[in-house]
Predict the 3D structure of the following.
Amino acid sequence: DVKVTQSSRYLVKRTGEKVFLECVQDMDHENMFWYRQDPGLGLRLIYFSYDVKMKEKGDIPEGYSVSREKKERFSLILESASTNQTSMYLCASRPDGTYEQYFGPGTRLTVT
Amino acid sequence: AQKITQTQPGMFVQEKEAVTLDCTYDTSDQSYGLFWYKQPSSGEMIFLIYQGSYDEQNATEGRYSLNFQKARKSANLVISASQLGDSAMYFCAMREAVFGNQFYFGTGTSLTVIP
């Protein structure tokens, strides 16, 4: 079974803190994604990566950065967390040549 | 313009009945894929069904079927014989092949199955 894990299910941070959300997949997938999910807005793509050290902006990259130093790990970084970044963050991965994305369990981030 | 539109924020269905969740999409690409995901209250996103733009037959996976009407740009999910465990949020999504990894999701429909 494909497994996508995220470092925390729940996270509470203060405004201005630097926040790291980690995602690891164990199936050697080339592509990895970070989404945020907000009520009434669905899932919105923040960044994706199609290879180690390669990244592309999604629809809402402002205020976020990403890092992919190893194929299995994709990190989302909030350089200076703000209250409007309180959200559910979902990581996903997908192997080349297929259409299905595999999602992690999500991290519910609260910025106070 | 919204790429994916789900106009039903909430739906109710009697157990064992069928239910249709609506989804319309907007793209100028000829090659694209359409997806439905289920998200139970636990939060994980579960892939249900996929339809490619060139697939002539409607996709089916067990009790799930996708009613694909290309000219109308609609991709409705039909769940037959609803079960209590079907209560969840359902998201329609589209992948435009040109961009490969760019997926667009709708705002979701909350389905409640009534015993």
Remarks:
- Residues 93 and 99 of chain A are 10 Å apart (CA to CA).
- The first strand of chain A starts at residue 4 and ends at 6.
